[in-house]
Amino acid sequence: MNLLFDYFPEFREGFLGTLSLTAASAALALILGIVMAGFRVSPIPPLRAFGTAWVTLLRNTPLTLLFLITFFVIPQILFPGTSPYKLAVGALGCYTSTFVCEAVRSGISTVPIGQAEAARSLGMTFFQTLRMIVLPQATRTVIPPLSSIFIALTKNSAIAGAFSNTELFSVSKLLSDKGYAIGWIFLWIALAYLVITFSISGLFRLLERRMEVAR
Q: Where would you find the membrane-spanning parts of this chain (predicted)?
């Protein structure tokens, strides 16, 4: 307990840093994932090709390698001077968006094709059909896998600590460098991660129950 109390400000900053990285990356991943899922089921071949390439390339790239590219290559070419926080959110969000995309695409496939055909018969465009008819129905199926994806994102955010971001992993490195027993450090860090992951799990269970009532 002394370790936690003596370095409570550091633990608090690390916890808030992990929470911020997770929330911002999850929002980016959700937006990109839905867009890419729409591309992958689009009747327009170039959009389908782009969505497929996005998922195939990023999902099969190790996350650490993606961080290295994001931090040491992209700022030299596109966005010089970008903060480490924004770069970390970009790397985590883009990587996670591929898993969100596949979850959403699987949810779209559960919606009866007659729903889309009926929408087209009313003169709705593909994107109107997707936004107003298909996605709302697919949401019920998508919620459970999204919970696992965002829990994995929370744990993946630890990589950002090695790239000048303040989060729980960076706190453990700081305290281990000071000579504290690594076992106690990891105990408090693990409990902090459990708080975040259990909160995500509880939130999605609540959403599942609400959607079941709506059904």
A: 15-39, 60-79, 181-207
